[in-house]
């Protein structure tokens, strides 16, 4: 029983990381139609900036941890905003060019990270409480999992409220439905779309900091590794659906944890799940149905 509880809670914690990465992808593609293969480097950049802050302020202090989260989010946001403004903004509705430019950017930036921080992983530690465990039904669950779950829940609520209750959220949703009409009303849709990209980068950067604590290290390829599962989560959950991304993140991560423990092929089990969803429900769990 304790093993099941440990795998379940740890899986939800990993799912929280997946959600922080995939939510930005889901927003950017689902609302803007942009295939952003450079999303992983937003995460990696945020993780490295968070690591730099934690190393200087004291990795085991709560102020250092909180500041590293904020700096990681800011770093991811700035990187994403610059990417959208100078590279992606000219390529809307041009998917092949989007893939080429974002894949090229990802490869170049990973090489840049290799040159700055080296190819070896940089190990990180957080506040002492995060290194301890909490006993639940006989299972000793690492406390950093609870931190990741809490942050992901707050981000989910904040993003939903932003899109549904704020002026910019309404502009973004209207711009997706009819961009020319919104532009004719004198509203600059480009600024709203840049904001979406920025928010996606901020969430990814924050996810990078939490991922570094989850895995215990930062490396130049951390973001690209997580990006694979983020794309899987986005497809399973449904493009543009934050709730779908949250459900799919937990589903994928829990399946991965149980399959790894009992079978040893967690990644394969996730790919099988992806294939089943694509074949039976191409729009994803909560995505819009594809017309026949």
TrEMBL record:
The keyword Transport applies. It comes from the Bacteria. The chain crosses the membrane at residues 6-29, 41-59, 65-87, 99-117, 146-163, 191-215, 227-255, 262-280. It is a multi-pass membrane protein. It holds the Pfam family BPD_transp_2. The keyword Ligase does not apply. InterPro entries: ABC_transp_permease, BCAA_transport_permease. Keywords: Amino-acid transport, Cell membrane, Membrane, Transmembrane, Transmembrane helix, Transport. It is found in: Cell membrane. Belongs to the binding-protein-dependent transport system permease family. LivHM subfamily. This is Branched-chain amino acid ABC transporter permease. It comes from Ornithinimicrobium kibberense.
């Amino acid at each position: 029983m304790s093993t099941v509880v440990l795998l379940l809670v740890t899986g939800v914690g990993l799912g929280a990381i997946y959600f922080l990465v995939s939510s930005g992808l889901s927003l950017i593609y689902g609302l803007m139609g942009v295939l952003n293969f450079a999303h992983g480097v937003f995460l990696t950049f945020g993780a490295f900036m968070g690591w730099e802050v934690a190393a200087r302020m004291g990795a085991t202090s709560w102020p250092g941890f909180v500041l590293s989260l904020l700096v990681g989010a800011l770093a991811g946001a700035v990187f994403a905003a610059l990417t959208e403004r100078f590279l992606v903004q000219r390529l809307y509705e041009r998917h092949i060019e989007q893939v080429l430019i974002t894949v090229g950017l990802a490869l170049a930036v990973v090489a840049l990270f290799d040159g700055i921080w080296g190819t070896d992983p940089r190990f990180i530690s957080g506040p002492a409480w995060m290194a301890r465990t909490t006993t639940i039904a006989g299972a000793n669950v690492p406390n950093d999992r609870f931190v990741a779950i809490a942050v992901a829940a707050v981000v989910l609520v904040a993003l939903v409220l932003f899109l549904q209750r704020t002026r910019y959220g309404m502009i973004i949703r209207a711009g997706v439905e009819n961009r020319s009409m919104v532009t004719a009303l004198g509203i600059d849709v480009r600024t709203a779309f840049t904001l979406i990209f920025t928010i996606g980068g901020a969430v990814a950067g924050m996810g990078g900091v939490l991922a570094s604590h989850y895995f215990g290290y930062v490396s130049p390829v951390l973001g690209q590794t997580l990006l694979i599962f983020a794309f899987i989560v986005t497809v399973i959950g449904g493009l543009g659906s934050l709730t779908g991304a949250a459900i799919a993140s937990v589903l994928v991560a829990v399946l991965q944890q149980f399959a790894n423990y009992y079978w040893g092929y967690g990644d394969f089990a996730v790919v099988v799940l992806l294939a089943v969803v694509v074949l039976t429900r191409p729009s994803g769990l909560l995505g819009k149905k594809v017309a026949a």
